[in-house]
TrEMBL record:
Protein name as annotated: TetR family transcriptional regulator
Pfam families assigned: TetR_C_43, TetR_N
Domain of life: Bacteria
Family annotation (InterPro entries): Homeodomain-like_sf, HTH-type_TetR-like_transc_reg, HTH_TetR, Tet_transcr_reg_TetR-rel_C_sf, TetR_SbtR-like_C
SUPFAM superfamilies: Homeodomain-like, Tetracyclin repressor-like, C-terminal domain
Lineage: Bacteria, Bacillati, Actinomycetota, Actinomycetes, Kitasatosporales
Native source species: Streptomyces yokosukanensis
Amino acid sequence: MSTAITPAPRKVLRPRADAVRNRERIVTAAREMFVEHGPDVPLDEIARRAGVGNATVYRNFPDREALVREVVCYVMDRTAEAAEVALAETGDAFAALERFVHASADERISALCPMISSSFDQNHPDLQASRERVERLIEEVMGRAEEAGQLRSDVGVGDLMIVVAQLSRPPAGTDCLHGDRFIHRHLQLFLDGLRAPARSVLPGTAVTIEELRAS
């Protein structure tokens, strides 16, 4: 009588700690250089700033599109996490909204997101998942703030995203990396204008995410 042999469980291969660190250094360096010089910055310059070899960059990211997409997803995930942490720590939806807006400026999200243009796959699963996560979170935070009487009722998620993108760009003629003294000041003025009760009537209607995507 033969005895059935149970195959040994396969080991889950995890990336080495140094490989994870190298990938993080590449993404961080790429984010900085994309903001400073645009998406066409040479990959060898990114490797040099990250302190890794060119082969390490290509081993992690087979082409420029993969690296740009990873950077944009990384930025969107970090801004979403900032709002989630604020909500968990304070339970205050408007505080979470403020944290998201200022984190978006710190991450230069307005400079990075336009890099996903028609030449890139805008419907890539990773990119779509990060974008939907941000949108769901902001819809939840804004809904909770409105229910709590903190947020005026005539603004939508699209309104917020448009203004964050516009105000977090540095003023013309200034150094992008040294415009924070303007950016955060003006973003806070905008946030104060979102508080309820509203002091004025806005023209038009609240902009939804669907309208923003279609524009």
